[in-house]
Specification:
278 residues, alpha/beta, 8 strands, 35% helix, globular
């Protein structure tokens, strides 16, 4: 399948942010990638190319306070970054090649947290979360970095959180699509209690797939973890997306097999995801 890449400019809560649209040549489901705090869209472009080969239009973008808007990092809030995400979603859903009723969102850490809230504001059919972060609801409009000073996030994340007490988890509790939830075995940022809180919150999903990536840290910073993450994501999307096209058999046959160690060049070129102040 021929794949094209198109640079796009998105108007978000932080002003103009840059994105890259990875497109096949037919009307297809859309996949939106949301990076974590301290990361960027470059971490997902290689992964988006692999997913696009399944027959999807993929959009990666830089949240405000990152890449070209990094000087704003001390000022951006969860609110402004959520507006960035909403703007990116609307850009993808409105594209003439994309089936706006068949959108998947892939989020890591802070991006996963924002992605869950997005599901309460926009239609999302499939939600993939890798080590999603969790934050206290108060101080929504404050600079994101200030949360690490004003809130005891370490203590909050070490305890089980009831869905009714947290905006992101409340969104999870009413989400009715399919979910992939990935945990890192050696995550020093997102403890197991956070993953348990998310798993417990997803009570109305069509399906929930949970995997713990053995040997992985929060930023999936080694090549083996990068390869494992991409393989799990691509395999899951290959199973989920044919339902939107009504061609499960043909799509399954066309789906790439998980690459053997040392062969996946796209993963080898992917950057580790930066974990500071997630």
């Amino acid at each position: 399948m021929a794949i094209r890449e198109q640079k796009v400019a998105i108007r978000g809560g932080s002003g103009r942010i840059d994105g890259t649209l990875v497109l096949p040549g037919v009307l297809v489901p859309g996949v939106l990638f949301v990076h974590g705090w301290g990361g960027g869209q470059q971490q997902y472009i290689a992964r988006a190319r692999e997913v696009a080969a399944l027959g999807c239009a993929c959009l990666t973008f830089d949240l405000g306070g990152h890449a070209g808007t990094q000087p704003q990092r001390d000022k951006v809030s969860r609110e402004s970054n959520l507006y960035d995400l909403l703007a990116a979603y609307d850009e993808l859903a409105a594209h003439p090649y994309v089936d706006g009723s068949a959108i998947a969102v892939v989020g890591s850490s802070y991006g996963g947290y924002l992605a869950t809230i997005l599901t309460s504001m926009r239609p999302v059919s499939w939600l993939a979360l890798r080590a999603p972060a969790l934050y206290i609801d108060t101080g929504w409009e404050l600079p994101k970095l200030q949360l690490h000073q004003d809130h005891d996030l370490r203590a909050y994340r070490r305890s089980f959180v009831e869905a009714v007490t947290n905006r992101a988890l409340r969104a999870c509790s009413v989400f009715k699509g399919d979910v992939l939830l990935l945990e890192s075995e050696h995550d020093d940022i997102i403890p197991p209690a956070v993953i348990k809180s998310y798993r417990a919150a997803f009570t109305q999903t069509r399906s929930l797939t949970y995997r713990c990536m053995q040997g992985a840290d929060h930023g999936v910073s080694n090549e083996t973890s990068q390869r494992a993450y991409t393989a799990l994501l691509v395999q899951w999307l290959a199973e989920m997306l044919p339902d939107a096209r009504g061609d499960r058999a043909s799509a399954a046959a066309a789906a790439p097999a998980a690459p053997p160690p040392g062969v996946d060049a796209a993963v080898e070129n992917a950057e580790p995801e930066a974990p500071p102040k997630a």
